Every structure is written in C-alpha cells, then in structure tokens.
From TrEMBL:
<dbReference type="InterPro" id="IPR002629">
    <property type="entry name" value="Met_Synth_C/arc"/>
</dbReference>
<feature type="domain" description="Cobalamin-independent methionine synthase MetE C-terminal/archaeal">
    <location>
        <begin position="11"/>
        <end position="331"/>
    </location>
</feature>
<protein>
    <submittedName>
        <fullName>Methionine synthase</fullName>
    </submittedName>
</protein>
<dbReference type="InterPro" id="IPR038071">
    <property type="entry name" value="UROD/MetE-like_sf"/>
</dbReference>
<dbReference type="Pfam" id="PF01717">
    <property type="entry name" value="Meth_synt_2"/>
</dbReference>
C-alpha cells in the first residue's frame, strides 16, 4: 500500500463531465481542482465511454460487447472493447498534457482515477445467456478479479505517465439494488436474488485489497449501505449528503467514529434556479455534524468536498462553476468560517 492517502480539507470531482472534448475537460479539472484533480469520464461519447463501458477498457481477459439490453461478456475483444480502450487512451493523453503544462509531473501531487465497483458492474453486465453476471457466483468472482487486475494496471500506467501518485475511486451506485434484490431479470422468475451482505462485502473487500492503493468507495444513491461501506476496507467513503435521511445518521456517525474520512457531495450536479453561495452549500454538512455531536472542525479535518454526483448531465458552464464552488466551500471549511 502506498503511503499516499486521500487528502481532506480540499475538493475534488466525482468523475463524469458533460462535453466530449477530453483535452478541454482535463485542462479545466486540473485548473479548478489543483489539490486533487481527476481523470474525467465523458459518457456523452457513447458506447465504451459510460461508466460500464469504461470497464471494457480495464477488464483483463474478459472482453465486453453489447446486447439488445446493454453490455455482455464476449468471447473475444470486439468493437466495444477496442473503442473503450481507445477512448481511455485519449483521456490519458489529455490528462498527461494538462499535467505537463501545469508543471505537476514528478511531484507528490496526487491524481484520482475512477472505475465502476464490482457489484454495480456485475449487476449491469450480462452473461452469454442474458442473465446478469451477479446471478452466477463464479462469474461474479471472475469479474471482480479481472476488474481489480485491470484497475491495478491502470493505476501503474497513470503513475508512469504523470510521475505522480494515484488514488482510486470505486463507484457503486447500484449497491443498494444489489443488496435489496430489486434488479429486474430476463423474466419475473429469473430476477437476481438479493445478494447477502456478507457476500457483497467479501467481493468489495477483495477488490480493494487487490488494488493496493488508497481507495474511496462512492455511492451517491439514496439509502447507501453505510455499514457495508464502513467495513469494506476503503480509506474514504463518498455519499451524496442531500440524499441522506434520518435513518442514515447512525451509519455516518459510525464511519466518523471509526476514524474514516468522508467525501461529501454538497454541490448540485445541475444548475439550481438560484446560484447558491458557499454558506448555502455548507448547510447540510454543518447540520449533519451538529446533529451527530461532532465538532465543526470535523469538516476541515475529515471531509473531502465534491459535487453530489457526476456532472455528465450538467452544462459546461455549470460544471466548471460546480468545481469552483466545491473548492470555495472546502476553503471555507479549512479556514473555520462561521456558518450561522
């Protein structure tokens, strides 16, 4: 495990970006998020560029193709896998260029990369017969192992290109559906069963351990399984604060009690009717720590500020504004600003 850990008291992005211009996006992210920029995802480019399609560029010996309903495990690499690899290479070229221009090469400045988590991936990828990979224990294991190996190789490639340490974010937006058994199947009688939490935990733990650099697990869905996330081995847990309910308070408190920092989604991913100031954006986080009985300095010492989720659905202007707002809010937390 690298000694470089996830920083706190600063801001970063979640991953996706609304345009299809990799170079422009990389330049913006490196400029607006000077302390923890990230490799952008540009899902608007189509197949191979969305969260699941990006995995086609990472999986080792498990190529993906498309079916009438989504992505499917294939026998050999085809157009989808080749497209995903080509798009990822372009994104890396763009980030490397922006990194060089910003004078970051060879520094200890970390950068973050994102990948879909193993359970969300298995819930969306089909096997040859059309069933979700989640329904087959062997396929789930193979998919998780392939993903971990691919992410590890991806990290090594980014480190080589940038000469800087790399941190990993695993995105698990489908985790609640996996645990609840609320996913559809090829028929009503063949819907995936609810995956028992111990099995789900073991899968996520195995990938985090294999990646071997600090990992943030991010779940921006409602009712995130906070107990599982806390025990996953991740170094940081990411949630959308605006989606939390009273029922989630104990889980957030247990994460903080365990000494784990939080990536808190506080900046809207689409432009609100009235542009919020940093005090407006801070209110959910301040309310959260107040209700849990933690001192407000926790927001500077244990929190990474992010948008509530990816920015693929935002306009280009708001996306830049969202990153700038996240940075301003992080500075306000770090400076101990008054929020009342």
């Amino acid at each position: 495990m690298t000694e470089k850990s996830f920083p706190v008291g600063i801001a970063t992005g979640v991953g996706s970006w609304p345009t299809d211009d990799a170079r422009e996006a990389a330049t913006i992210v490196v400029g607006e998020l000077p302390q923890l920029p990230h490799l952008v995802e540009l899902p608007g480019r189509g197949l191979g560029a969305d969260m699941i399609g990006r995995a086609a560029a990472l999986l080792v010996d498990l190529p993906l193709d498309t079916s009438t309903t989504g992505y499917r495990v294939a026998q050999r690499p085809g157009p989808v896998t080749r497209t995903a690899r080509d798009l990822l290479a372009r994104d890396l070229d763009a980030l490397e260029e922006a990194w060089e221009v910003a004078g970051r090469r060879g520094t200890d400045q970390p950068v973050k990369v994102q990948a879909v988590g193993p359970l969300t991936l298995a819930s969306q990828v089909e096997l040859f017969g059309g069933h979700r990979a989640l329904t087959d224990h062997g396929a789930l294991r193979d998919l998780a192992e392939s993903l971990a190996e691919g992410v590890r190789a991806h990290v090594a490639e980014v480190e080589r290109r940038l000469g800087s340490p790399v941190l990993v974010q695993l995105d698990e937006p489908g985790l609640r559906e996996v645990l609840d058994g609320s996913l559809s199947g090829v028929s009503i009688l063949q819907a995936p069963r609810a995956l028992p939490e111990p099995e789900a935990l073991a899968v996520v733990q195995s990938v985090i351990e294999a990646i071997d650099v600090p990992v943030l697990v991010h779940c921006c869905a409602a009712a995130p399984p906070l107990d599982l996330l806390r025990r996953s081995g991740a170094e940081m847990i990411g949630v959308d604060v605006t989606a939390l309910t009273v029922a989630d308070l104990d889980g957030i408190g247990e994460i903080l009690e365990a000494g784990l920092p939080l990536a808190l989604g506080l900046v809207p991913t689409t432009p609100p009717e009235r542009a919020p100031g940093w005090r407006d954006l801070a209110r959910p986080a301040v309310t959260l720590v107040d209700r849990l009985g933690f001192p407000r300095r926790t927001l500077a010492e244990r929190v990474l500020v992010t948008p509530t989720c990816g920015l693929a659905g935002a306009g280009a202007d708001w996306s830049r504004r969202a990153l700038r707002s996240a940075s301003e809010l992080a500075r306000a937390f770090a400076d101990g600003a008054e929020f009342d």
